[in-house]
Structures are given as C-alpha cells and as structure tokens.
Design a protein that fits this description.
The complex is a heterodimer of chains A (398) and B (123).
Chain A (H helix, E strand, L loop, with lengths): L25 H6 L6 H14 L3 H15 L10 H4 L6 E2 L6 H19 L5 H8 L7 H5 L23 H7 L5 E2 L2 E9 L7 E14 L7 H9 L2 E4 L18 E3 L5 E3 L2 E5 L1 E4 L9 H5 L3 E3 L9 E4 L4 E5 L2 E10 L6 E2 L6 E7 L1 H11 L2 E12 L8 E9 L7
Parallel strand pairs in A: 5-9
Antiparallel strand pairs in A: 1-14, 2-3, 3-4, 3-15, 4-8, 4-16, 5-6, 7-8, 9-10, 11-12, 12-13, 13-15, 16-17
Helix pairs in contact in A: 3-5, 5-6
Chain B lengths: L1 H12 L16 H9 L4 H16 L1 H16 L4 H16 L6 H7 L5 H8 L2
Classes of the chains: A alpha+beta (398), B mainly alpha (123).
C-alpha cells in the first residue's frame, strides 16, 4: 500500500478552529448537494451519525474558509445553466464549477482530519477520499465503442407498447452467439427510432435449480442479480485501476453466493464491478457497473485483464469472458424523458460456462427486465412502464 | 432599407457597451486553452482535454513545454481536488510509456491528499 500521506495535507490543524456553535452558511447548506454528487453530503451525514461528531458542520466551516481565502464569491452564477435544469430540460451530469472543487477539497480535508482524530478507520479514510477521483485509469484505456449490429432496435412504425418490436428482440438475445462466443448478459438502451417511445432492458444470467413451486418471482430474481456487486478492498494496491489485474484476491463479492427465491435456488453468474470512486468523467460506467463473472465461474489461476476494446477474464490460457460497452453521442447531457444511449454486454466461452453448469448440476436461465418511457408530445413528462420475464426457466423439480 | 435598419438598431442599442473580446490580442497559447478545458465545467470536456495533454507529453516536440505548464499549474494549485486534475494527464501518459520525472512532479504538489498520493504511486 502506498503512503497514505495524511501528514502531508496542508494546514490541516486549522480545522481545530471550528467552533461547536458554528452554523454552515446558507450557500453551503443550499448547494452542497447540488454542486457535487449527493454522495458527499450523504457520507457527511453518515459519518456524523456514526461518530457523533458533526462532520457536516466542519465541512461547511472549511468550505467557507477556503472560499474566503481563495476569494471565490458565494454565488451560483453561470453554473445554473448546467446544473439546475430539472424536468424536461437536459442536465449536465458531473458538472464541476470552482465552488464544486472547493466543496470536494474541503470534504477531503475533513475526512483526513477525522482520520487524524481516530474517528475514522484507515479503510474509511481511503474509501471516502478516493471518491473525488474522476476516472478509473484502466477504464480510461478502454474505448466505449459503437453498438453491435445485433443490439435491439426500435422500428419506425408507431405501435402500442405491448406490440413493440424490441420485446421480441430482447427475449431472443440469450440464443445469440457472436464470433463463437455466447452472449451471457446485456443491458442498456434500445436504439430508438422515435422521440415518443424510448426503451431500456437488462438481461442477466443465473444458474438455478428448482426447489419447489415457482411463484411470480421474476422481479425479485432480477433485483437480486442486479444487486450482485464486486468491490475492491480500499487498501488494495492499484485501487484506481480496476481491470489492470491480475490479482483478484482483493476483490470482494458483495452478495449472497446463492439465494432461494420462491422455489428457485438462484446462483448469480454476473456481478457488476462497483468502482472505488465516482467515475464522473465516464459516468455511464459508474451508473452501470461493468459486468464481471461471479466466483461461481472463476477458475484457479484465472486473472483479469483489459485492452483498448474491452475487459476480460482469462483462465487456462484462454479468454473465457469479455465485457464491452457502447454509446451513441457524447452523453454530455442527460434528458429526463430518455434513457442514455449507452449499453454493455458480456460474451463468454460456451464450454467454460457449460463445464460449470454440468459440474454444479445446474441449469442456465436469464432474467429480463424491460422499461419503456412513452410521451405523445415533446413537452410532456413521460409515462414509464416495466415488464419482467424469466427466460428458459424449466419446471424440473430436483 | 439597410441603412434605415442599421439606424434603427443603433437607436435600440443606445449607450450599450459591448464587452471587449480579449481572445484576439491575448498572449495565451493554445496550450493554455487546452489546460483551461481540463478544468472545464463539463466532465467529458475535462476528460478529452486531459487525454490530449497526455498525448502532448508523449510527443518529444511538445513534451517539454507541456510538462513545464503542468508543473507550473501544479505548484501554484491551492485545492486538493484540482491537484488531482493536474496529475491525471501525467499518470495517463506514464501508462502509455512516458518517462515521468517523478521527483519533479512530487515536489510540485502543494496541496497533497490521499488521492494525489494514490496517483503518484501509479507514476
């Protein structure tokens, strides 16, 4: 582990000057959630509650002190054009003004101060601080490509929602093979043809055995699979380069390896890799954590790697898993009425997948969730609909 | 007709003073503009600018002046979060094979944090 460098922070002792009666300025109170991601204000509250020392008060005090010392006026100014357009207008995710930099820097300094006061552990100090980093260095190497030819697309014919072409396209995705690899998982926006209807889908695989009668469990299974996450231990080496590999020993799976849901014993096969920081320079990769195999599929001596086209899991001299993502446009602005035009997918070696299923005596199924936003006029707020299916779930009771 | 239009517009302008545009006689270079983009309000602009600064570090003909500009900025930076932004092009270039002057970069950091230390460890 690198030197934590807490002794190197500039003038950290000045934080001792915050009076217990200090009240954060109206500017801080009003904008500490608007100028920076809500993570910072949420974490400040969480730390305050946990330590019984008012972190938010200290953060506000240090923020005000830095603003004054750098002669930055407490005003919104042009920033409002970028960050305060709610509703139908476009928003600029991750917009960072000078005031936002002060908020982040003062947050960093308060976390270091709390660590110095032994109010936070070393892991918490690193975990909270590293969120300020705007990009993962390994993900920076990987190009977000264009959507593959087979990605679900809307057609131009106006239809009822129940008759949209994308439903059928999504349902048949688990049968797809790409250059000899099997499509294991996919999620993202359906490529739209009209302004009126926008769709998004999430297709996640799982291994299963049937333990009893199957009730209506699709949404619960999909939620469980979606919540399956990997994180990297905060004090691990190369914390900010998730796919540099090769070590997976400092990756922590944040989910149950198996769970019985309404008669179905579910074994997640894909988990999202939650980054240590807020990947604001490529925010779509933070909002949709990159797919990676769960420990069920990992093989001894397997390792993670990446190149300019994707991220991979290699074992026994073979690339058995590959992840890729795509986007259309810059994604600089997000629109309330639309899903961001981005997606990701995972391909795998069919033999590698089958060998696990055979060995564990399990079968493969997918949970598919499709969401649709519909509006008849450009200025209308969209109505949103969701549907969920379990694909290839056999009814064999074992 | 055109003359009448212009005259009418002039009347509407009254004593309006149009702010001067400093771009034309500014002594700032294209590199200064690129660095300004690295601190732009939009994160995607920041990322593209940082990536281009890394590319300039990798080219022998632009390495010296780019490094000097980044070191100068880094050494006068008063905010920890912006220090991270100054360091990112250098770390990016290092991953592409740039021979980073690590001691010089470390000495230039005036507002260190655990985040900048993490980045320096990647150099």
């Amino acid at each position: 582990m690198f030197d934590l460098g807490v002794d190197k922070y500039r003038d950290l002792q000045v934080l001792a000057g915050c009076s217990s009666t200090y009240t954060p300025s109206l500017f801080f109170t009003r904008y500490c959630r608007a100028f920076v991601p809500p993570y910072f204000a949420d974490t400040a509250e969480e730390i305050s509650e946990k330590t019984k020392v008012n972190f938010t008060q200290l953060w506000g005090w240090e923020c005000e002190r830095l603003m004054k010392s750098l002669a930055i006026p407490e005003e919104v100014g042009d920033v409002s054009s970028y960050t305060f357009q709610t509703g139908r207008n476009a928003n600029l995710p991750g917009a960072a003004s000078t005031a936002a930099e002060v908020l982040k820097s003062s947050f960093l300094r308060c976390v270091a101060w709390f660590y110095l006061q032994r109010l936070l552990s070393k892991e918490e100090f690193v975990e909270y601080s590293i969120k300020v980093l705007p990009i993962d260095l390994s993900l920076w190497d990987i190009t977000t490509g264009t959507p593959p030819d087979w990605w679900p697309r809307s057609d131009h014919q106006p239809k009822e929602i129940s008759a949209l072409e994308e439903w059928d396209q999504c349902v048949h995705l688990p049968e797809r093979h790409v250059n000899g690899s099997r499509l294991l998982a996919a999620e993202g926006a359906v490529i739209p043809a009209t302004q009126e209807i926008r769709s998004y889908f999430s297709l996640l695989p799982f291994a299963y055995s049937i333990r009893g009668p199957i009730s209506d469990v699709c949404t619960r299974i999909h939620r469980t699979l979606k919540q399956s996450l990997w994180i990297k231990y905060p004090l691990s080496e190369h914390l900010i380069t998730i796919f540099d590999g090769p070590n997976l020993d400092q990756w922590i799976p944040l989910y149950d390896p198996t769970e019985r849901i309404g008669g179905v014993q579910v074994f997640p096969l894909i988990a999202g890799v939650r980054l240590s920081h807020i990947n604001i320079w490529q925010y779509w990769r933070g909002m949709h954590p990159p797919f990676f195999p769960t420990p069920h599929l990992l093989i001894k001596d397997g390792f993670v790697t990446h190149d300019a086209n994707g991220w991979y899991y290699e074992a026994a001299g073979q690339r058995v898993f590959e992840g890729h993502d795509w986007r259309i446009g810059s994604l600089e602005r997000t629109y309330h009425a639309e899903y961001d035009l981005t997606g990701q997918y995972a391909l795998c070696d069919p033999e590698w997948l089958n060998s696990y299923l055979e060995k564990a005596v399990l079968r493969l199924a997918h949970a598919l969730r499709v969401s649709v936003k519909q509006r008849n006029r450009e200025y209308e707020d969209p109505k949103e609909f969701h549907s969920c299916w379990l694909l290839n779930l056999g009814a064999v009771v074992t | 007709m055109v003359e009448a239009d212009l005259g009418f517009i002039e009347e509407l302008m009254a004593n309006l003073r149009i702010p001067s545009v400093a771009w034309f006689d500014s002594s700032h270079s294209a590199l200064d503009s690129l660095i300004a983009r690295a601190f732009w309000i939009g994160p995607l602009v920041r990322e593209r600018a940082s990536n281009e600064l890394a590319k300039l570090l990798l080219k022998p003909e632009t390495e010296g002046v780019t490094l000097q500009a980044l070191i100068t900025g880094l050494s006068s930076e008063k905010l920890e979060s912006r220090t991270v932004i100054w360091l990112l092009p250098m770390v990016r270039a290092r991953r592409e094979g740039w021979n980073a002057p690590i001691d010089k970069i470390k000495q230039a950091v005036q507002t260190p944090s655990v985040v900048s230390e993490t980045l320096l460890a990647e150099l």
